[in-house]
Design goal:
The protein is α/β, with parallel strands linked by helices. It contains 15 helices and 24 strands. The termini are far apart.
Length: about 475
């Protein structure tokens, strides 16, 4: 099948070819199958885009490994429905197909009691057809009942098909017949057990692609399996038979005109290496719209910060796994501490926040010196300290009141000095606590923020960078 030709098909620029791959629960094979399908479609010469429902950073790294381009998060809590639609539209235009990977179980959303921010919510927000991946290990006829339940739970369920995972070819033929005859939903193929392509996990999710041995060979093998066992032509037909998406004019104009309010020419250094790899591409793109030039650096490998910068960002990742290497890079630690002391505006999230502190307990249990730009020590705990969505309120960002900020936390580590600048509240819950360190030049803490949900955070940061440049 050939790539779409817009001229020949007279395709509306907003009729983005798209589908969502979802499952009944986590651990059902979503990432593996998503990557296999993306690789197979790319091998056919199709121009693909990939997206991840929810806040996860690691699954998009695998998408990027397959496609060689960024994968974007679609999160209806952090980015709101309008932001999700705008992101899909802006990154999906002129693509032959957009593949969205779900999060957790299809209907699993906020606080475990809501469908909001679930994969279903993204499908509903974008009117995207969904294919349910069903893990068939240890089940047979019961699988039909599971699919039936998902189809009947919501009137507008958006489920248009099923893929059966971890099933033998002989059993697949029987299961396909039962599902299609009894439920009138199409089965788009199956995936047998592919033991050589299993992706290992750690406490924050899957290992990152660079840690997977022979990852390129595994993805290529997976794609060959998909060509043989999955109805890719049928999936492409489903993805192309979709409704046009409407842009939110107010959101689009705001994002396009962000740079009108600020001067160009600010340089922002963004940490990006093995230790700091949890980055939302949309965040960097919004900073660029604000006139920023993004320059990346490695706190592990580089000896100092890039020259002539007016801002610095350290997002999350795994600094605890590289605590020794980070600590031994004395000149970088001194460079960062000096920059913060001089007043270079800085955002530090989770792992970046841990690195800015005085000390960090590494994954080996040893205590290592860090940048020392903030007081305190971060240390590991035996359980997940914070997990899920929060709303940050009652604080300021670089001296500005930007209103409530939707955010996400997921960490086993804790700090002696978490800050008191904001009040964090769990949605649909009475739980709350104080967190974050916020001054006219620093915004640091465990929460992860997606600027699409509140672009004023990025505007306040860029404004601080501009003021630093003018003062300098």
């Amino acid at each position: 099948m050939q790539p779409i030709n817009d001229k020949d098909n007279n395709r509306n620029s907003h009729a983005i070819p798209r589908l969502l791959l979802t499952a009944a629960s986590s651990g059902s094979g979503k990432t593996l199958i998503t990557c296999g399908i993306l690789k197979a479609l790319k091998n056919r010469g199709l121009n693909c885009a990939a997206f991840k429902c929810g806040p996860d950073y690691i699954d998009p790294m695998f998408h990027r490994k397959v496609l060689g381009i960024d994968s974007y998060n679609l999160d209806t809590f952090m980015c709101k429905r309008t932001g999700v639609r705008q992101s899909l539209l802006s990154h999906g235009k002129n693509r032959d197909i957009c593949v969205l990977e779900g999060v957790m179980g299809y209907y699993d959303g906020i606080a475990g009691i809501s469908k909001e921010a679930s994969a279903w919510d993204v499908a509903d927000t974008t009117d995207t057809p969904a294919i349910l991946i069903l893990d068939c290990k240890g089940v047979s006829v019961s699988a039909v009942a599971v699919v039936k339940g998902f189809l009947e739970y919501e009137t507008e369920h958006h489920i248009k098909g099923v893929i059966l995972n971890r099933i033998s070819p002989m059993m697949y033929a029987r299961m396909k017949q039962m599902i299609e005859e009894q439920l009138k939903v199409r089965v788009y193929g199956y995936v047998p057990v592919v033991s050589e392509c299993v992706l290992e996990s750690r406490y924050l999710g899957l290992q990152i692609p660079e840690e997977v041995e022979k990852i390129n060979e595994k993805l290529e093998h997976l794609a060959r399996v998909m060509e043989d066992t999955v109805d890719l032509d049928g999936i492409l037909e489903l993805a192309r038979n979709v409704s046009a998406m409407q842009e939110d004019t107010q959101v689009k104009e705001h994002l396009l005109n962000l740079s009108d309010t600020l001067q160009k020419g600010i340089r922002i250094a963004v940490a990006h290496d093995e230790a700091f790899c949890f980055i939302y591409p949309d965040n960097l793109e919004i900073l660029k719209k604000l006139g920023a030039e993004i320059v990346t650096f490695s706190p592990i490998h580089d000896r100092s910060l890039p020259e002539n910068i007016q801002g610095m960002v350290l997002y999350g990742g795994y600094p605890e796994l590289y605590a020794k290497e980070l600590s031994e890079n004395d000149s970088m630690r001194e460079s960062i501490c000096h920059a913060v002391t001089l007043g270079v505006p800085c955002i530090a999230e989770c792992g970046g926040f841990m690195y800015l502190q005085e000390r960090l307990e590494g994954s080996d249990g040893k205590i290592y010196d860090m940048a020392g730009a903030l007081f305190g020590k971060s240390y590991k705990t035996e359980k997940l300290r914070r997990f899920g969505y929060i709303i940050l309120s009652k604080g300021t960002v670089f001296g500005h009141n930007v209103g409530n900020i939707t955010a996400h936390e997921f960490h086993y580590y804790e700090s002696e000095e978490c800050g008191h600048a904001f009040t964090a509240k769990k949605p649909m819950s009475t739980r709350g606590w104080e967190c974050m360190i916020s001054t006219d030049t620093i915004l640091a803490g465990y929460p992860h923020i997606h600027y699409m949900g509140n672009p004023q955070v990025a505007e306040a940061f860029a404004g601080a960078c501009r003021r630093y440049k003018e003062k300098d």
